Amino acid sequence: MYTLSEQQIDFILSDIKSRGVEMTDLQVGLLDHICCIVECELEPDGDFESFYRKTIPRFFKRELREIEEETILLLTFKHYYAMKKVMIITGVVSTALFILGSLFKIMHWPGASVLLFSGIVSASLLFLPLLFILKTRESNSRRDKLVLGIGIIFGILISLSTMFKIMHWPYANVLWLISLGTMFFVFIPLYFFTGIRNTEIKTNTITSTIMLVLAVGLLFALTSLKPSYQVTKGNMYTYLNNELLLHKMQSKLSDSIQNTGMVSSINNNCESIKELIIQYEIGEKSIPADFEAKDDIIKEGNLSNDFYDNGKGVQLLYDLKKAVGQYNSLVKLEENKIPVVNTILETDPSKFGLYSNFSVLNSLVQIQMFLASSEMN
Amino acid sequence: MHKILMYICFMYSSELIKGTLKTIVLKLLSDNQKMYGYEITQKVKELTGDKIQLTEGALYPSLHSLEAEGILTTEVVNIGKRVRKYYSLTKKGKSTSQEKVSEFADFMNTMKFLLDIKPQVG
């Protein structure tokens, strides 16, 4: 049996490294293996160098590095199949969740939000990233990988902003427009100019680009689903006429009633909230009579959460609820109480942002009208 | 894709041995508790009377992938200046080993029937 010196072991290790084997695990394994061969098969007085030179080709066909390449291939292949499986499963599951969620939402069944939320989260945070990892492995060109990467980022952005819109979360529109912007100004040009250079896929690229532009256009058209000018104008006149009616009723009441603590407190609160909404929408304290000429149109939409960020609106509504409660407790006749059930007074003021501006304005006028008519009796 | 030619076998064609390397390694480890790379190649040589010789180029990639799959576990022992890695079967590996061996036995029976091989007498 041959005994290897420390220098010879170092020599073998550095030779393994210089032949391109980089994985430490593999280096260690090969070193021990070669040492074993030398120790067992070389005569005690044999020539180490020539034996080593004859032995090393046993490990490969062309280069020693092949062992490492084969190892990496086997290791990645294992993950490759597992990842592909996960990708397909998450893809199918999120599509199913999304379709079910949409159906539940249309039918107003409970659980729609949970379904949509989990569907979109698994699609954008599992399926799309996995798709990116697997597809980039298949493609060799750096440019293809870039196009794919930006496409995937767009996909993630668009599905997340769809979720924000569905859930009525703040900044949904900003995110939505950023997604469409990325798609239109970054992804489509990149996709078009990389594809057009390749004669084989030139026609396909042109068709796909046209379809992509069309799709972005359609999505852009869906950005703001708001009623037409005529409908909005109608809403404004209804509100203004309600106000007129209210003033007519209030004018019948004596000043002493109007100035009663309870009555004035309810009226002041209602006026303040209305003022806050109108101020926010058109920048004035009340709707001017010539609003059409001035183009001071209030578009129907939800009272955004940021509107109440300063807490002013929320606080006012709390005060109003309290005042109405006090008033109702003092009124003896049931028919003279201000209705609370199924009105905005029943809502948690922090959820107030989900209500439409016109419905809140009209509800407030209604409360004031109930109050005036009760006081008339 | 796989470098089949990395198997050197003096008696059998590489196509014939393709796919049995893992079975051989797993069976050896289930009989011998723990073994290191060189020991595995020597044992195969000895048991088959030099008819099957595993090459290092095929053995090590397989050992690493079996380890990554959680079928094998390793134990490192310092031998002077170098390190020796002993491979042994995990719990999962023990059942995989049995499955692989019985799958191969079943395959051999099917092949015998398919190729109409008569059992050799004496």
**Overall mean confidence score, pLDDT of chain A:** 85
SS strand fraction of chain A: under 5%
> What general outline of chain A do the C-alpha atoms trace?
elongated
Helix proportion of chain B: 40-55%
The total of beta strands of chain A comes to 0
Output the structural class of chain B.
alpha+beta
Largest interface: A-B, 28 and 30 residues
Helix-strand sequence of chain B:
HHEHHEEH
Rg of chain B, Cα atoms, Å: 16 Å
Number of contiguous helices of chain A = 14
Q: First CA to last CA of chain B: what distance?
A: 42 Å
Task: Report how far the terminal alpha carbons of chain A are from each other.
Answer: 119 Å
**Low-confidence spans of chain A:** none
Q: Give the biggest beta sheet of chain A.
A: none
Oligomer: heterodimer
Based on secondary structure, the structural category of chain A is mainly alpha
| Tally of individual helices of chain B | 5
Residue stretches of chain B low in confidence (pLDDT < 50, at least 5 long) are 1-9
| pLDDT averaged residue by residue of chain B | 83
Question: Overview of this structure, please?
Answer:
The complex is a heterodimer of chains A (377) and B (122). Chain A has helices at 6-18, 24-41, 48-55, 65-107, 112-138, 142-166, 172-196, 202-221, 229-251, 255-258, 261-282, 291-294, 312-330, 357-376. Chain A has 377 residues and is an all-alpha fold. Chain A has three domains: 6-73; 104-221, no CATH class; 230-376, no CATH class. By secondary structure, chain B is an alpha+beta fold. At the A-B interface, helix 1, helix 2 and helix 4 of A face helix 3, helix 4 and strand 3 of B.
Question: Outline of this structure?
Answer:
By secondary structure, chain A is mainly α. In chain A, about 70% of the residues lie in helices and about 0% in strands. Chain B has a three-stranded antiparallel β-sheet with strand order 1-3-2.
